[in-house]
Each structure stands twice: as C-alpha cells, then as structure tokens.
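Its record is retained below.
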Amino acid sequence: MQLLRLAWALTAAAVCFLLLLLLHRQVLREGQLAAGTCEIVTLDRDSSQPRRTIARQTARCACKKGQIAGTTRARPACVDVSIVWTRQWCDMTPCLHDEGCDLLVNQSGWTCTQPGGRVKTTTSV
C-alpha cells in the first residue's frame, strides 16, 4: 500500500514538473528574452539634414548579473558593466570588423570610421 502511494506521489510530482516546464517555455515565447540577449524595440531615422542621418534606436535586453545593455558589432548586446562605468566604449567592440573605433573627446560616445572615410558617431544617453 505504501509503495502504491509513493508511486502516485512520484507520478504527480513528475506531472507537475512537466506542466511547469511547458508553462515556462510558453512564457519565454510570449515576450521574455533569454538571459544575455537583446532585441531592437524601436528604430527611427531622420534624414532631413543634408549629408547627415540621425538614427535613434531603443533596445530591450535581459542581461546577466554584472552586465548591462551596450553595443557589440553595431548590434545591441549585453556587455560588462565596468565598460559603462569607466566610459571606455571601444572595449565593448561597438564597430563592425572593418571599422576603427575612437572615443569622443568628452567620452560621451564613440566614432566608427569605415575604410572609405565615412564616420558614424554614437553618443550615449
């Protein structure tokens, strides 16, 4: 009799575990990000000025402990929080592979210089 009760209890526990696992997967599919990932939420471009485009993007990140939202290879990414505290923006590798990164003089952002000389400037908010 006790063996039967133990079997029923283990079965019930296994069913509860499977239901929790399915519920967790459903919640992740419906809007939660996996830890350490980011997604672009909004992207606005303003080309009203000649030879200049102002782009503003908002990203949503689910960073792990010790990380914060940043930019890696021109995409939103979770980066080490010390990069933001010290304002050493180029340490997070924000530019593409063929671009050079330079800090702005006041350390409020960085520039990515392409081989052809085109410069993209990014400032933190």
Observations:
- The chain has a mean pLDDT of 82.
- The helical segments are 2-29, 81-86.
- The chain is about 25% helix and 40% strand.
- The CA atoms of residues 77 and 89 lie 13 Å apart.
